[in-house]
Amino acid sequence: MKGKRVDVEAIRAAVKGFLAKEGRLAFGFVESNGGVRHQIQRTEPRDLTLFNPYFDLNGVLYLRRFFSKDARILAILRPCEIRAYMELTKLTQVERTSIIAVSVDCFGSVSSKEDLKLPLGEPLALKSALEASGKVRYACTLCREPRGVLGDAGVRVDAEGKLWAQAYTPIGEEFLELLDSSEETAPDSFAIAGGRPGDRFQSDMETFSKDFAKCIMCMNCRDVCPVCYCIDCVFQGDEYVPKGDAFINKVFRMGDTALPLGKEIFHFIRMYHVSQTCVGCGACEEACPQRIPVTKYMKGTSERLQALFSYMSGRSFDEAIPYLTFIEDELKDAED
Amino acid sequence: MSDDAKRDGVEIVGFACSYCSFKASEMAGSLRLKYPEGVKVVQVPCSSRVDPAFVIKALFEGADGVFVAGCHPGDCHFIKGNYYTRRKMAGLKEMLNTFDIKNRLKLFWVSAAEARRFVEKVEKMYNELKDAGHEGKKG
Questions:
Q1: Mean pLDDT to the nearest integer, A95-106
Q2: Cα–Cα 20 to 30 A to A105, which of A11, A76, A280, A308?
Q3: Are residues A179 and A238 both part of a single domain?
């Protein structure tokens, strides 16, 4: 495959060239205050960095409901973020032609709550430091696609730690044109291999109740989920979680009621609603104030449900989300 | 409807398509076919109207089982609604299977003429749940 030899400086120069025109924005990672954070830049790509080993949230959350055709955004993000973006394009939650989505090889990440110094500049040193730390997040250890092979273009790390930029779609070519170096044949082997699929997830109600006993229904997991996109969430009103009189009536009807009311329903409904689009980024677990292993359930069930339709969230722009399409001759054993 | 009497029986919530399965349940009534009284049928305009959220809500708020009944594939009044239902319910079943409670959801295809089939299916489900006891029942 063709690609361009690049380094961080070359990418910064390319982003600078991109921002020179009117109505352009760059979305990426920036080193700040000892960590790495998302930033949207309008004028100059200061401190722009490619790798972010500290996971705080999935940045595509901020691209949701971006429909403007006048502005253009160059997003250089993690593969899981680009996957979430690809799912949102299928759900028409974001304007695809306005965004150049560039995925960067990811070596995994630690929680942003960790106080851990990592070598940000050197890809291979970062890789071994992460492996040695033993603090890589659960979601990252079971990542299905850590390679930058998704979206419109990608930045890959080869076995010697050199960076290569590749384009996958016509929109991605635009990003490649911004880079100064000439096109060469990219190497075949890169620093990271494909995903590491976990075992088939199996649980039961007892374990589920035990794990979620601490849930306080803050709904942070819903709010930070990049693919949980409904504006009118069913949990917004009083229908699913009654309040006041309706709540007291319910207690009279149901008998002893554990509080907060409706947490099993909440997590089950969310688990189902994001089942085909969940990218397993682990933002939900990161946001949980009670340290509930939410990702284990979300990722586990979603992988099983996606396997049912041989689907993988964020694998390609053209694959339709299973619930939005059908084949007439299928699922013969669905009826009981 | 005293609480104790309610708790002895199995409660089933059914979502039935108004063009076929709900008609079948009405016809079962006019044919004097009996089905268990714990079965509560909710009329929906099409089986694809049933968001799995409804099923989950019913299951966690006291129902022992839930069934979704629609027209046979290919016979949908809205041309393709039940194909979507089939995919959604297959997904939901797989999810309940993950938590070992698969037997609490059923999907039936019942046309408006199949009153007897409707009663048979519902009775079979009722007896299965009754034999299995009230495992995992809330409240």
A1: 94
A2: A308
A3: no
Would you say residue B15 lies in a domain?
no
> How many domains does chain A contain in total?
2
Report cis status (omega within 30 of 0) of the bond before A260.
yes
Crossing angle for the helix pair B81-98 and A263-273, to the nearest 10 degrees: 120
| Chain B residues close to A299, C-beta within 8 Å | none
Which ranges of chain B does DSSP label H, i.e. alpha helix? 3-8, 21-30, 52-60, 81-98, 115-132
CA distances from B72 to B79, B85, B91, B103, B125 (A): 11, 11, 18, 21, 19
What part of B 43-62 touches A (C-beta under 8 Å)? Answer: 51-53, 56-57, 60-62
Average pLDDT over residues A143-155: 93
Q: Which of B66, B68, B82, B99 to mutate to test the interface with A (most CBs of A within 10 A)?
A: B99
Mean pLDDT in consecutive groups of 10 residues from the start of chain B, 139 residues: 57 95 95 92 96 94 93 94 95 95 94 95 93 59
Q: What is the pTM of this model?
A: 0.92
ipTM of the complex, rounded to two decimals = 0.91
Same domain assignment for residues A151 and A57:
yes
CA–CA gap between residue B10 and residue A53 (Å, rounded): 52
Task: Report the domain count for chain B.
Answer: 1
Q: Which residue has the tokens 């054993």?
A: A333
CA distance A25 to A31: 18
Q: Assess if residue B108 is contained within a domain.
A: yes
CA end-to-end span of chain A, whole Å?
A: 49
Domain match, A241 and A169 both: no
Q: How many CB atoms lie under 10 A from the CB of residue B21?
A: 30
Residues A207-266: tens digit of each pLDDT:
999 999 999 999 999 999 999 999 889 998 888 888 899 999 988 888 888 888 889 999
B128 found inside a domain: no
Considering A185, A217, A234, which residue would you say is the last residue of a domain?
A: A185
Residue A114: inside a domain: yes
